[in-house]
Amino acid sequence: MPLTADAFDAETIAGDIAAWGAVESPTTDTAGVNRMMDLAADALSGLGARVERLDGIDGYGDVVKGHFAGPDGADAPGVLILCHLDTVHPVGTLDGPLPIRREGDRLYGPGVYDMKGGGQLALHAIGALRSAGRAPRLPVTVMFTPDEEVGSPSSRARIEAEARRHTCVLVPEPLKMGRKVVTGRHAIQRFELATYGRPAHAGLTKKSGRSAIRVMARLIERVEAMTDDDRGLSYSVGIVQGGTFVNVVPTVCRAEVLCVAPSDEDLEEIKANMTALAGEEDGVEIRIDVGVTRPVFRPHDGTMALYDTAKALAAEIGIALQHGQFGGGSDGNFTGALEIPTLDGLGVDGDGAHTFEEHLLVSSLVPRCRLLAALIETLE
Question: Is 29 within 8 Å of 119 (Cβ atoms)?
């Protein structure tokens, strides 16, 4: 029987999420991310976890893990809860377009929805079980990572190694469209597109130059045009940088591209389409570098059994739990692709991820926390 609603307090949970949201932690701000890791480590320690902190790699923030032993005290395979503490919002967002604020049922702030809210749900679920004197049947590890928003380049190997030690993985990323949990995720592939031209004085000898920006502009149109919404394939150019002075024909331009593929076959098609762009155009060299990949996470038997358990527990709470495979990557891609039973999208309800309208619904906090606590307690 899941914990009753009165074992949780929505306002307390919302307050703790707001406090985390008030610490700006874009992926590239290592100090900010590590301030979040300090808070996470303190919270885990306060719950009685054995806390382990791993130094950051390649300039990214640290990783924090909190281990809770099983009922027999053993550190056997158990439940891994994956959370990330980095956001996409740059420093200054709090004082600008997205301050922490409450408007009725909505709590706004950078990262409150994606996914500091989910991290707090995990902590409050464990805390509520402890307060009620109810112990999970398996050991539990909560792992906080620093670089999910850029594809987890420094933490992927650590995530996969930790996941292999566990029976299953829970990921309290936000709920998906239609308030569904996630039993599969599309692949995410990143590329860097670069053009190299020839300099010239833009006012005197423009004809002798070859503009890297001009060719890049054409390439961007071609890349974006390869999107096929009906098949779920997307090509998106998110960052463009080029030029030095306005009076110099630009010699270098770079663009970062993020692509989404529902299947391995689609992913190979995307890679072929992108790498085929390399070559030369109008005297400008075009190079393509393949970046980090999130593999396809397909629904499989272990994950579907985990979903069936969650669905039954949710029904006791009054939630009609649905599921699906979606785009929008998470660290669940890695564990699901390893065919470790993984249930994703167990976090807060809301909207506006990666925008200045990011918010969660306070009314979702207690139901979602109850479900997460029930899973943590009953999985075996």
Answer: no
Q: Return the SS3 of 76.
A: coil
Q: What are the phi and psi torsion angles at 14 (to 5°)? A: -60, -40
Is 187-294 in the same CATH topology as 5-186+296-378?
no
DSSP string, 133-200: T---SS-EEEEEES-GGGT-TTTHHHHHHHHTTSSEEE--PPPBTTTBEEEEE-EEEEEEEEEE-B--
Q: So what CATH class is 187-294?
A: alpha beta
> pTM, whole model, 2 decimals?
0.95
Domain-by-domain residue ranges, the chain? 5-186+296-378, 187-294
For 28-70, the pLDDT digits (tens) are 999 999 999 999 999 999 999 999 999 999 999 999 999 999 8
At 78-109, the pLDDT tens digits run: 999 999 999 999 999 999 999 999 999 999 99
Which stretches of the chain score pLDDT less than 50? none
The answer to whether 66 and 54 are in contact (CB under 8 A) is no
Q: Which residues contact 355 (CB under 8 A, 6 or more apart)?
A: none
Multiple choice CATH, 5-186+296-378, 3.40.190.10, 1.20.140.10, 3.40.630.10, 3.40.50.1370: 3.40.630.10
